[in-house]
UniProtKB/TrEMBL annotation:
Domain YbaK/aminoacyl-tRNA synthetase-associated: 64-169
Pfam families the record matches: tRNA_edit (PF04073)
SUPFAM superfamilies registered for this protein in UniProt: YbaK/ProRS associated domain
Protein name: YbaK/EbsC family protein
Length: 185
């Protein structure tokens, strides 16, 4: 199958390649219940040596720069408690952690979660964290610009491989909250 974005050799519907996905992502695809069919979530093989954004778009297609999203784990603190959430923004922007995220989480302070926490809590590899398959109960804050795109490139849960996901599917993820201005220039 031809990928709807980027210059990839082959795109495979995610349900047909669950063995290439980490456990939490495979489980999420296996039990997908959104209006967007799971077969529209596509998996593409990528070389981890080309993970740097500039090299990645040079190799897989310049159109991906505006059609890629980053998923980062943030920690919100209030009093003695810490809560984790995921934020999904276009790769051309950065997460408004101290504004939109802090307010949405009702936190006194918000920051990016340490790498050990992000990978340990998600069961995913650093640099490949995806909003598909996050722990139950996590808020998934999604910038509205991501939802507006026909397809978006995101991590697959590991550094090798990416998912191509219809933008509107991000709004259907468990715990999803679509927000204006989550990603800032």
């Amino acid at each position: 199958m031809r990928a709807p974005i980027g210059d990839f050799d082959h795109a495979t519907p995610a349900p047909a390649c669950l063995d290439r996905l980490v456990g939490p992502v495979a489980d999420a695809v296996r039990h997908w219940g959104g209006a967007v069919p799971a077969e529209q979530i596509l998996y593409v093989e990528t070389d981890p040596a080309w993970a740097d954004t500039a090299v990645f778009v040079e190799h897989y297609g310049r159109d991906l720069l505006e059609r890629s999203a980053n998923c980062v784990v943030v920690a919100g603190r209030r009093g003695g408690g810490t809560s984790l959430a995921a934020c999904v923004v276009l790769s051309t922007t950065r997460v408004d952690v101290n504004g939109v995220v802090r307010r949405q989480l009702g936190a006194r302070k918000a920051s990016f979660a340490p790498m050990d926490t992000a990978t340990g809590e998600t069961g995913m590899e650093y640099g490949g964290i995806t909003p598909v398959g996050l722990p139950e109960g996590w808020p998934v804050l999604v910038d509205s610009a991501v939802v507006d795109l026909p397809y978006v490139l995101v991590g697959s849960g590991r550094r090798r491989g990416k998912l191509l996901v219809p933008g509107k599917a991000f709004a259907e993820l468990p715990g999803a909250v679509v927000l204006e201005g989550l990603g800032i220039a």
